[in-house]
Amino acid sequence: MAKENAGNPDMIICPCGSCRNLSQQHCDTVLEHLVMKGMDPRYKSWVLHGEPLSESIEVQENAAIPETYRMFRDVYVQDDFSQPTNESREREFTQALEDVETPLYPGCTKYTKFSAIVALYKQKVVHEASDKSFDELLRIVSDMLPEGNTLVQSIYTTKKLLKAFDLGYDKIHACVNDCCLFRKELEHMETYPKCNCSRWKVDKRTKKIKKGVPAKVLRYFPIIPRFRRMFRSQVKAEQLTWHSTHKSQDGKMRHPVDSLAWDSIDQKWPSFTLDPRNLRLDLATDGFNPFANLSSRYSCWPVMLATYNLPPWLCMAKENIMLTLLIPGPKQPGNDIDVYLQPLIEDLQELWNNGVEVYDAANKSMFNLKAMLMWTINDFPANGNLAGCATKGKVACPICSINTCSQWLNHSKKIVYMGHRRFLSADYPFLMKRSWFDGKQELRGNSKPLSGSDVLDAIKDIETNWGKTTKERKRKRDQTKQKKDQKEFDCALLLRHNLDLMHIEKNVCESILCTLLNVKGKSKDGLKARKDLAKMGIRSELHAEDKGSHFYLPPASHTLSKDEKKIFCSRLQDLKLPDGYSSNIANCVSVQECKLIGLKSHDCHVLFQQLLSVALRGLLPKGPRNAIFRLCSFFNQLCQKVIDRNMIEQLENDVAETLCILERFFPPSFFDIMVHLTIHLGREARLCGPVQFR
């Protein structure tokens, strides 16, 4: 019966007391194992060999198997069921299984050696204890336990025991100039022909090459084994199909499954949608300093994937975010990040085109798993590197592209992005107002966002040229733009690269605060801004007056007076907030200097959406005050956990009107690219759902 139900008649799963259904062996070998070692006593129903499993037996069997045993079994089961298990792997598992099932001390029934160390190590990680303190804790607990206990007594032994759960990573040598990865046809090359740089590290003192010591190493954490492991857990496998039965029916968006982008994928690729276990992913990356200080000399870039099949409370949980790449420094990869993404892109293409065979623990069956990348999530500078689009200059807006309304300010020496009246309806009164804005009537219509096919047509003839270059080599070659790889399905996606709301919100919040408080060097108002107003011929009441030895700047409605600054800062400093609501805003407020220092992204998030309207009450004239309050309200409504589809279009119209009111009162230099990108956040929420998932 076992032969008849096996995929390969010569190889069947061995149920002996040693193998325990964890490896496939030749039939003769299985016979020898059963004669010499006997049947696994826990294997009551032969479900892996063709016998049907009743529900009562399944529950009884699962209850009899310890949780730690099932965890180890999931780790050690081979990904390829058609290949026999390696003998060394079997011995490793047998030894690990002994550790799992060994009681913590003689007579202990609550903890095993393994479960005890897992519980203690979890506390170390959660409370960020040092290795030294953890070693001392292990020694103290070991002394408290009865004699003959099996608790390990060092962090080294602990990590060695837990290493069995590590899926590991691939080390891939990279060119120091980010030209290539030494893999596939370049795997055995000593230098890359383009830049002639060695793959090995050069001793700075002797200038000699250290053979065997790579100059730059990329860490790649293969994603396919991780996806396989996800489906080996019955609970996780059931959670990965949550989206198929929990789509909203009341017109509200609570999860990306309720969005237009999700529906668009369902319509264009019905075969992909047919199996709810197929994964929908997002990709995010950014640089950080791994050495816990403010130095910017070293920038390491992690690349992560999140899975949207999961319920909303698990989608973006840190334990479900998968680290896939660790791009080394010391400098950021910039546009050459495509070189480092190659192994990840190849796995994603394999998952999209062909899929991989995966065992589903919930259905007790094998299936062909496919996956697709729905979009990316990055801050604006990283978005430019990953998407290959401009983030500076006249066409800095990736949505408006060549239709971006930009203007050069001669005195401020910067490009600003105004002209938000064109996003209003055709009969709106603001369109004819000249003196309130840039001195012109607005006759242009709203621009149509670029589609994926438009982008592909625009870049099809652009050549790529990867790698950092020295100034000498840069002069010898022609400058070429970067061309980003386009997936087969990129042209059909409604949204490919997200605008990061938290990054935009932080920048807009800081611009408003620095302008209100007139912070030196950071305010968007000043002598240069007033000279730009005079050159544009608008708001004559704010033009700088030349007094001979100095210029007099008339007070503006968008700037607080000295007494008003004191009141504003005092209100923020005296705020009492619930524990865990936010960080202590009072620590960021300097009443004496009348400015806010060291605000983090979440500080700006809470300040902009909840506290700014309270702190500014009664301090500014009605016009600019209401404009700021409307902008705060827009971000607040956009960040709700539940979004009404019928209200989101009204929200888009409201933010266009709000930005026009800001144009009326704030100087042109205030409108950098971050302020302009606010106009597109409502559209992205309408297409893709709540911002918490993006």
Structural notes for this entry:
By secondary structure, the chain is of the alpha+beta class. Residues 55-69, 76-85 and 471-489 have low confidence and may be disordered. It is built from 23 helices and 21 strands. It folds into 4 domains: 1-101, no CATH class; 170-214, no CATH class; 221-387, no CATH class; 401-448 and 500-693, no CATH class. The strands form 8 sheets. It has a 7-stranded mixed β-sheet, sandwiched between helices. Strands 1-2 form a two-stranded antiparallel ribbon. Helix 3 runs antiparallel to helix 4 (87-101), helix 17 crosses helix 20 and helix 22 (645-665) packs antiparallel against helix 23. Helix content is 38%, strand content 12%.
Question: What is the helix fraction of residues, given as a range?
Answer: 25-40%
Shape: elongated
Biggest sheet architecture: 7 strands, mixed
Which band does the percent of strand residues land in?
Answer: 5-15%
- In spatial order, strands of the major sheet run 3-6-10-9-8-13-16
**Rg value:** 31 Å
Average residue-wise pLDDT: 83
Q: Catalogue the unreliable spans.
A: 55-69, 76-85, 471-489
In summary, what is this structure?
By secondary structure, the protein is of the alpha+beta class.
